Amino acid sequence: MEINGASIFYREAGAPGAPVVLLLPGWPSSSAMFRDLIRELSVNYHVFAPDYPGFGNSDVPDRSHTPYTFDALGEVISKFIDKVGIGQYVLYATDFGGLVGYRVMMKTPHRMKALIAQNNPLFLGASPWFGPLVPYWKDGTADSREKVRQHYLTLDVIRDLYVSGVRDTSLTDPNQWQIDFFSLQRPGAADTSLDLLYDIRTNGPALKSAQDYLRAQKPPTLVVSGKNDILFPADSQQRYREVVPNAEIHLTDSGHCALADKSDEIAGRIHDFLGRVL
């Protein structure tokens, strides 16, 4: 689908007319992270999973005329929702997907019927994982940017997102982190990620607005996160109840990319949850 002159790839499955589940991926992945979940959910739901510009199989528009910020990604996903004809939807958001999805949620109030958060931040945290980003956030210099590139855009760091905190790493498919790493080698894709990693520093007001919105609207909320996540650990996921007191929280024995080894468990939780709240 063309949006803002760029080709945006997306996966779609399930029956038109069924309740819509919108799956928004995290960094540095794409809709590929949802392939098993899409198969599970499409039995009962109409599922959409787009790739952001610069990610997965979407185009990588030139940075000189396309900003890579969370505000900009939110605009693209909002246009995608309208263009494919989604009215109301359940939002499944993980990692970057929350920072994008919250913007979509607030841009079109009352269209989000339920929220499913998987290793998704709602409050600013201070994980040591972000430590090497702090100098870059402070000065934004070319030198700091290069140090971030050399640290984060490596196969080891991306692999750790999938295996850190996982009890049985044999259950995770190595193709997942290899595909993520390979996608960063496309022309322009690495700088796309560096721009967005830099833009994380601006998300305080957006998260506060999302908290206020969720506190006021109290949508049905399910948290299905890996409790051993080095980025957003169990205590950060429990904080959803500060905003939505009736949030259902199920923390599985996994890490940041919990779908990689706990997809069946998470799909079961989602079917039970949506079967009750929709």
UniProtKB/TrEMBL annotation:
PANTHER family: BLR6576 PROTEIN, HYDROLASE-RELATED. It holds the Pfam family Abhydrolase_1. Keywords: Hydrolase. This is Alpha/beta hydrolase. InterPro entries: AB_hydrolase_1, AB_hydrolase_fold, Epox_hydrolase-like, Haloalkane_dehalogenase. GO terms for molecular function: hydrolase activity. Residues 19-262 form the AB hydrolase-1 domain.
